[in-house]
Amino acid sequence: MITPLILATVIVSQSATTPQSVISTMNRYYAGAEKLSADITLVQTLGTKSTTIKSFLQYHRPGKFYLQQKMANPLAEAFAISDGTNVGYTPPRNMPTVGSKLVYERQRTLTVSDVYTISTPGLVDRSPVLDIMVCKPAHVRYVIEQMATIKLEAPTEAGDHVVTGNWRSHGESVTVGTYRLVVSQQGELKRYERRERVVPPGQKDVMSITSVWTATTRKGVVDDPTLFSVR
To answer: How far apart are CA 46 and CA 28, in angstroms?
Structure first.
């Protein structure tokens, strides 16, 4: 079922900026990217503990893709690589591998969305920012459905749009937190913040977990084409 929010991101007023039009502009920005490189940093905090995950993404549609993720504490990393036909990716933690940290497959043809979808179970950070940047319609729709409410706030000093609201884990669930997006006038997603209430394993009390993704996008640019090589 198409929700009013999803419909509103497709049919938007051209005469005024609304939160729906900001989301629509952002989606068009990434959907229209043939080439893209991006650096993404996640800082996640629970109580007094925090961890940082850095991601480097680049792709050249239709099928060349590279994603590297590194987490310092605890130590973990993940990769996804495709030359358009062959793909290598980090398997899920519970999947045994033989002689390699990556699983390799040969396909007839692969799109950027295909490679990302194949690799998501083994990623260190499967994030809404990646979902938006890769811009597979089903993934974007999932991120939008998590926005239980949507509101346009005052812009940043740099003139970027700010969209906020209540957050839920999926479209039919109850609200368990809040979110905040910072999007440039052109549609580049610069920051995604999420605060959600959770009960950690082994705990009884509800705690707040804060996830802050900051991103820098270079649309139309592939930083290093040699990284698309699947060895």
So the answer is: 34
